[in-house]
Specification:
Order of helices and strands: EHEHEEHEHEHEHEHHHHHHHHH
CATH topology of the largest domain: Rossmann fold
Strand order of the largest sheet: 3-2-1-4-5-6-7-8
Low-confidence stretches: none
CATH architecture of the largest domain: 3-Layer(aba) Sandwich
Strand content: 5-15%
Helix content: 40-55%
Mean pLDDT: 96
Bound molecules: 1,4-dihydronicotinamide adenine dinucleotide, 1,3-dihydroxyacetonephosphate
Number of helices: 15
Structural class: alpha/beta
Number of strands: 8
CATH superfamily of the largest domain: NAD(P)-binding Rossmann-like Domain
CATH class of the largest domain: Alpha Beta
Distance between the termini: 43 Å
Length: about 325
């Protein structure tokens, strides 16, 4: 199975590196010609994954047509660009593995729903979990969920990607795997705010727990399974991303917590903080299914610049007491 990777940001590059540990022919599409050149000539992705020496089995191209000979495609552009990129690739009936974490603005669609529209004949899998790209590319031990409704295809894709240090766990719950990854990015912004505002470790733990309750309420309303939400792609990724400034979403939140404006923090960024795009569309999607997500609403308000951090924290803490259950 010849693997093609579409998107040469940090995560696409790390996944190409994973595929290339056993495979002598991995092709990655980079939107930026200078990134293709850097991978092909210097064996490094200086723009998006600096400091990692890349396998000589990875070839880069900036021509999407070059992916025509690939047997399976990993889609690793940011979520808001999945549809436009798929429109340019004649995917046909080749399996696609969706790796972006987000919800499409405007349509409120999950990535699998976008892909089903844009590449209707392609079998779909989702790859999502606690996976900082730098650690994966450096070969550090990592576990991840690979969800595919077709169990036999899921198994063959997992076998194709698995390495001793990279363990896919199989699931058939595509929606559940996607919801965990999309929601945790917004919650990571909230945890960053707690850090930036100096609110302490108790507050961070409370936010992870109550954030998980929000993720679960929304996930269950959308048909996700409990064990997926409590697994690698849900709780696992929530804990990782809420714990470290290695997360772009957590760092964005930290800046907000320190009182900086979202517009300033987001201006001129080359790397993506998906939670900033997901937050408003997630809040709308939650309202569609009648689910309360107060932490997500708070992140939206902060990103819009509608409210100051102190006022927001006071409002969250003043909410009526309630039962802990969902
Ligand atoms: N970096 C990480 O550790 C992980 C990232 N992800 C997810 O992978 C997805 C991609 O993130 P990263 O690789 O980190 O990106 P990145 O932040 O490293 O790079 C940004 C990417 O956006 C691409 N881009 C910019 N404008 C574009 C356009 N108009 N059309 C298509 N692509 C465009 C750039 O070419 C580049 O590949 C995101 O959804 C992210 O949440 C998932 C797991 C881990
Ligand atoms: O998804 C990730 C880790 O699983 C990466 O998180 P950030 O996008 O916040 O850096």
């Amino acid at each position: 199975m010849k693997i093609g990777v579409i998107g040469a940001g940090a995560w696409g590059t790390a996944l190409a590196q994973v595929a290339a540990t056993r495979d002598r022919d991995v092709l990655i599409w980079a939107r930026e010609p200078e990134v293709s050149a850097s991978i092909n000539e210097a064996r490094v992705n200086a723009a998006f994954l600096p400091g990692i020496r890349l396998s000589s089995a990875i070839r880069a191209t900036s021509d999407l047509a070059a992916l025509a000979d690939r047997d399976a495609l990993l889609l690793v552009t940011p979520a808001q660009f999945l549809r436009s990129v798929l429109a340019e690739v004649p995917v046909g009936a080749r399996p696609i593995i969706l790796c972006a974490k987000g919800i499409e603005a405007g349509t409120r669609m999950l990535m699998s729903e976008v892909a089903a529209e844009a590449a209707p004949d392609a079998p779909i899998a989702v790859l999502s979990g606690p996976t900082f790209a730098h650690e994966v590319a450096a070969g550090l031990p990592t576990a991840i969920t690979l969800a595919c409704e077709d169990e036999a295809l899921g198994r063959s894709l997992a076998d194709r990607l698995a390495r001793p240090g990279f363990r896919p766990y199989l699931s058939t719950d595509v929606i559940g795997a996607e919801i965990g990854g999309a929601v945790k990015n917004v919650l990571a912004i909230a945890c960053g705010v707690v850090e930036g505002a100096g609110l302490g470790q108790n507050a961070r733990a409370a936010l992870i727990s109550r954030g998980f309750a929000e993720m679960s309420r929304f996930g269950l309303a959308r048909g996700a399974r409990v064990e997926t939400l409590a697994g690698l792609s849900g709780l696992g990724d929530l804990v990782l991303t809420c714990s470290s400034t290695n997360s772009r979403n957590f760092s964005l939140g930290k800046g907000l917590g320190e009182g900086r404006a979202a517009a300033d923090l987001l201006a001129d960024r080359r790397t993506v903080a998906e939670g900033a795009f997901t937050a408003p569309v997630l809040a709308e999607a939650a309202r569609d299914v009648g689910v309360e997500m107060p932490i997500v609403d708070a992140v939206c308000a902060l990103l819009k610049g509608d409210i100051k951090v102190d006022t927001l924290i006071d409002a969250l803490l003043a909410r009526p007491l309630k039962n802990e259950g969902l």
